[in-house]
Write a structure and sequence with these properties.
Elements: E1 7-13, E2 28-33, E3 36-40, H1 47-55, E4 64-66, H2 72-75, H3 78-84, E5 89-92, E6 101-104, E7 107-110, H4 115-122, E8 129-131, E9 135-137, E10 142-145, E11 161-162, E12 178-183, E13 186-191, H5 198-208, E14 214-220, H6 228-241, E15 245-249, H7 257-264, E16 276-278
Parallel strand pairs: 3-4, 4-5, 5-8, 13-14, 14-15
Antiparallel strand pairs: 1-2, 1-16, 2-3, 6-7, 6-11, 9-10, 10-12, 12-13
């Protein structure tokens, strides 16, 4: 299998930000490699537009937009992105537009793709939107994977997610996707929220890549509401996978930065908008 020799990942949107950049509860990654320019998610709103201007990122060069799942904090800036890059190829799960809620204390909050973003997505030519229901290669060295099997007994979606406001039908978030890039030193994985479970995701990608080592993991681990046991088991599994770099972002939870850093040492870097990673 071919590899990419030079990868640059810029965090455009995150809950934290460097150097006066805008922050918000959301995620967006700009991935350059293999002569491709890939945007993973858009954040939830205005932070993306502010930060791309400050960072000098030209979204009009976007070849592919990968939508990790259908939540507002990953899709809210879709209309802006599609104005900047109207010809970008879109990759997402076919179930991404379903209505979904977070239900806490009998109070429901709509957390699906906002209406303007839905309209922008529905307005695209059908041939521009590519359904990802499993593993799909975007190039000979870059892949995206959906319908990720749940391979551990301690991971779940990470929150009180439902398909109805009454909280009767759990949302398994089957549309959760991850992006991966193969290099000579192993696979670099980009997560949106890892609602399928970060460890299940990494194990599945390792299987898809015929046992290639996980070189780096960047993105959301969705551990902000996780039990201490789940966090510890996630860290133990990461130590077994032995990546060179782990960059927790967005929904990982700031309370978990300490345990990650204690276990991983210099291999852990805390995510923030403006952080640039090169491989």
């Amino acid at each position: 299998m071919a590899t990419v020799d030079d990868i640059k990942i810029t965090i455009l949107v995150d809950n934290q930000a460097l150097g006066g950049l805008a922050s918000e509860h959301g995620l967006s990654l700009w991935v350059e490699g293999g002569r491709r320019h890939i945007l993973l998610d858009t954040g939830q709103g205005g932070a993306l537009e502010k930060n791309v201007a400050a960072l000098g990122v030209d979204l009009s060069r976007t070849d592919m937009l990968v939508i990790s799942h259908g939540h507002y904090d990953h899709t809210g800036a879709l209309p802006y992105v599609l104005r900047e890059a109207p010809d970008a190829e879109i990759y997402c799960h076919p179930g991404i537009l379903q209505t979904r809620y977070a239900v806490r204390d009998s109070k429901a909050k709509s957390i699906g793709i906002p209406d303007p973003a839905q309209r922008a997505l529905r307005g695209l030519p059908p041939e521009q939107v590519h359904a990802v229901g499993g593993a799909l290669m975007l190039s000979d060295s870059i892949g995206v994977v959906g319908s990720i099997p749940r391979l551990t007994d301690y991971e779940d979606t990470g929150g009180p997610f439902y398909l109805d406001p009454q909280g009767l039908t759990p949302d398994a978030i089957e549309d959760d996707l991850a992006l991966w890039i193969r290099t000579d030193a192993g696979v670099v994985v980009c997560l949106g929220c890892a609602h399928a479970g970060p460890i299940s995701t990494l194990m599945h990608i390792r299987d898809l890549t015929r046992g290639a080592r996980i070189r780096a993991v960047v993105g959301g681990f969705h551990l902000m509401d996780a039990s201490r046991e789940r966090v510890e088991r996630t860290i133990d599994a990461l130590l077994d996978l032995d990546p060179d770099l782990v960059v927790p972002c967005h929904c990982t939870g700031t309370k978990n930065s300490g345990p990650f850093r204690e276990a991983l040492g210099e291999r852990m870097r805390e995510g923030a908008a403006g952080l640039v990673l090169q491989f």
